[in-house]
Amino acid sequence: MFKLVVRRWMKQSGAPSIPAYRLESLCEQAQHSDNDQNVTISWGGWTLHLYKNQLWLHCDTEILPCPTVEWPKDSNALDLGHDAGQLILKGRNPVTPTGEFIVGSRANMAETAIRQGSHHKTLKNIFQAADIPPWLRDCVPLCKLDGELVAIGDWCFDDDFASWMSESQIEMSWQPRNPLLQFILTQQHSQVVDPAGAVR
């Protein structure tokens, strides 16, 4: 049944048919893997992932990670490249916060946790709870203010940074261009979020 579903989905997506031996490999890997383990097969310029009971399909063109760049003080928008898109500050007077405001990815930032309430939540735990696949995590923009991680995408914020945005009547919007990144962003926005950005 699983093979039939995959083949039907491939046909609807417009991707070339999966060779029988590749599909058999996917099934075998899935049977012997944990739910949160990334199962992957590639064929004909396409890659299919199975992660947390979801199938992810994309062509083999590399999805570029979010670059490391300082947000200019006189701009309310920041270009992050072809895949990650851009971050935008919205509001009546959308200015960047006072201090060194850096945007980058998990791969090029030393900070691995964000403060919410009396706890620090690790990036790994946040990404896992949000069901963001491992191969897309370096594409999610992370914002660092004076050396502290204050934002993950546009849905998870440090308490003080969330308060600053609320008091300044500013909202942050991430607008990725890659369809897979657009999908994971839609997933996050569909969840209920408290004022500090923690998923309930």
Structure description:
With 200 residues, the chain is an alpha+beta fold. The chain has 2 domains: 2-59, no CATH class; 69-189, no CATH class. It has helices at residues 2-13, 20-31, 81-84, 123-129, 159-168, 179-189, and strands spanning 39-43, 46-51, 54-59, 69-70, 77-79, 86-91, 101-104, 113-116, 119-122, 142-145, 148-152, 156-157, 170-175. It has a 5-stranded antiparallel sheet with strand order 4-7-10-11-12. The chain has a 3-stranded antiparallel sheet with strand order 1-2-3, with helices on one face. A hairpin with a 3-residue loop joins strand 11 and strand 12 (156-157).
Relevant terms:
5-stranded antiparallel β-sheet; 200 residues; single chain; 2 domains; alpha+beta; disordered C terminus
